Structure formats: C-alpha cells, structure tokens
Amino acid sequence: MDWGMKNRLSQLIQPDGRCFFLPIDHGYFLGPTTRLEKPGETIRPLLPYADALFLTRGVLRACVDPRNSKPIILRVSGGTSIVGRDLSDEGLTTSVEEAIRLNASAVGMSIFVGSEHEKETLLNLGRLVDECERYGIPVMAVTAVGKELEKRDARYLALSCRIAAELGAKVVKTYWCADGFEKVVEGCPVPVVMAGGPKCETEMEVFEFVYDGIQKGAAGLNLGRNVWQHDHPVAMMKALRAIVHEDATPEEARDIFEEEKRKGEP
C-alpha cells in the first residue's frame, strides 16, 4: 500500500484501530431530512467527537467550514430518490478529480447486492477503485439494502461485505445483525463499520447494538440519525464515542449520556 493511501486511511482509522464516522449524506436521496435541514448547524456541536464526516460535495461546499472540519469521506454515488421506483439504480455522480479538489480523505458509494441493479453497482465499485488507486484514495463501500430491510441477516451481509472487499474497497459500511455478526466481520478482510439505520426507540437500544458489534470485531461506526435526530445529540455522540474508543459498556455509555444530558439542561 502506497504512502498516500496509508496516510489517508490513518486519518480515518484512529491509532486504536477504531473509528466513528458521522454521516450526513442522507439528503442525496431523502431531501431535507428532519433535523438535517441545515446541516452546518446540525454538525457544529458534534464535530469535536467525530473522526470523519461522510457527506456529498454540495453540502461540503455549502455547509462545512474548511477551516474547522474533520477528514472527509465524500459520497460519490446517487441518481435515485425516495420517491423513485428503485433506490438501487444508482450511478457514480462525482469524479475522483473532484474528490482530490475537495481534499477528501476517502470516497464512499453504495452497492446493492441481490437487487435488480446488483451488477451495475458492483461494476461501478470496481471502476471507482481502479481510479482511486491511481491517486491513493481509499474507497468505502456501503452495503445498502434500500427498502428491502429484511435482508439484514448475517448471510446476506457477509456476502455483500466480502464482495465489496474483493473488489477493492478499503473499508466496508454495513448493518449490524443480532445473530452471526462476528461471521460478517471475520469474512471481510478490511475494516467493517456499522451503520445506524432507522432511528432506534431508546438510547440503550443503540448502545447495546454498538457495543455488541464492537465486541464482535467491528472497527467502529458510521452512524447519523441516532445521533442528530436525537433530542440530546451531543450526549449521544459522547456516549457512543466512549463505546468505540474506550470500550465502555452499554451501562457506562448510559451513565455518560445521562450526565451530559443533565449538563445540557437549563
């Protein structure tokens, strides 16, 4: 692996081998998502606790202060929306030259294994890796499932993650699953980061699945809605960071959350 690739990866994966990425790319297919209507205001208090931001070039340019940012993972796929027929019908929307211009530490795109457009998204990943390898830019593959949430089982996730790694992704973002998640991680030769998915009902629900995933080998998180859609986003961010980087238990994370919540109250 060349120096540039190693250097960019070191900006994302911290010295402890863990990472906490904050995704705010949801608008590329959802539009002005609740509590992400003004992305710059949403992330401002959260930035100190994130290891990297995952977002589109438009939001990066319009909403993120270039003098006060974290490493950037640039979302480079899209082309569909929540009102369209098929979320899996994505293509590449942003060039590698643009990623270099924006000083991105990595780029990210979705793949849809098992969908009608599986082949196209996997070939897109292969082409993106080819281009990024020329410039030492890591690619994060997102094992998306679109509206077909029932596919969040270990067998499907392990298949998707392994394919992404085989095609050259340096990091894979996938969903946690209750049964067999360790097999997902063990079968993927590159770091696996967990997606948050839809907003959970309680804080402990989030803390428990994150802790379980870390214990089973995940490198960290790429989790957004369960932070910035929460009534106490900074408290959530601090508690989750403690699980990722300090091996805090769900109970210890809850204590951190409650303490930070109290600090934030008038």
Note down, in words, how this protein is organized.
The chain is an alpha/beta fold. It contains twelve helices and ten strands. The strands form two sheets. Strands 1-2-3-6-7-8-9-10 form an eight-stranded parallel β-barrel, surrounded by six helices. β6 (106-111), α6 (118-135) and β7 form a beta-alpha-beta unit. The N and C termini lie far apart (51 Å). The relative contact order is 0.13.
Q: What does the average pLDDT come to?
A: 95
Q: How many separate helices?
A: 12
- What count of domains describes the coordinates? 1
Instruction: Please name the fourth-level CATH homologous superfamily.
Output: Aldolase class I
Quick one: CATH class? Answer: Alpha Beta
Structural class: alpha/beta
Q: What descriptors fit this protein?
A:
single chain, TIM Barrel, 12 helices, eight-stranded parallel beta barrel, two-stranded antiparallel ribbon, alpha/beta, 266 residues
Please specify the SSE layout and strand pairing.
Elements: H1 3-12, E1 19-23, H2 27-30, H3 39-43, E2 52-55, H4 57-63, E3 72-75, E4 77-78, E5 91-92, H5 96-101, E6 106-111, H6 118-135, E7 139-143, H7 154-166, E8 171-175, H8 181-186, E9 192-195, H9 203-215, E10 220-222, H10 225-228, H11 233-246, H12 250-264
Parallel strand pairs: 1-2, 1-10, 2-3, 3-6, 6-7, 7-8, 8-9, 9-10
Antiparallel strand pairs: 4-5
